[in-house]
Amino acid sequence: MNTKPSSSSNRLARDRLYMGFLAMHAVATVVIVYITISNDPLMMGASSGTSNHLWFRWLLAHEFIFFLPTYFFGIVGLWKDDLTIYPLLLAYGAAASTTTATCLIDLLFGSHDSHLTPKQLLFLLSSYGSSDENLYSRLYAVSMPCLQP
To answer: How does it sit in the membrane (predicted)?
Structure first.
């Protein structure tokens, strides 16, 4: 009896290993490019390991612990027209608005080691906030006097 695994199963295992390696490094590369382009003080602070942005690291963990599963449960609940999903979606909305407001306030009024150009600030506001152009111009007008050295 031949107990040696077939070459196709070896190839499949190797391909899965390569795909996992590629996926991990693709995510890491996207984060590095994002931080380089945006000069994002929140992400740089979270990756620095200091306690200054501990709150932001918790928000990132909160994304995976609460927001991501709730997003998928919400899709399924809405698809099935299940009324019991609405309290969870209400909690999702409250948490999302609170975390978004916290990030926007820190970006606009927090003290950061990195100096943001107006273009980077608008990019970060669009990353963390709404896609309303009028909102950006109002936030930009309010925040620019605060950002001047």
So the answer is: Multi-pass membrane protein
Q: 67 with 92: CB under 8 angstroms?
A: yes
The per-residue pLDDT for range 9-66, each reduced to its tens digit, is 788 888 888 888 888 888 788 878 888 888 888 888 888 877 888 888 999 899 889 9
How many Å apart are CA 106 and CA 110, to the nearest integer? 4
pLDDT at 77: 94
Rounded Cα gap, residues 25 and 69, in angstroms: 24
CA distance 139 to 17: 46
Sort 125 into a burial class: Cβ within 10 Å, 0-12 / 13-18 / 19+.
Answer: buried
The amino acid that residue 3 corresponds to is T
For residues 1 and 60, give the distance between their C-alpha atoms in angstroms, rounded to a whole number. Answer: 52
Backbone angles phi, psi at 116, to 5 degrees: -95, 135
Work out the number of other CB atoms within 10 angstroms of the CB of residue 25. 10
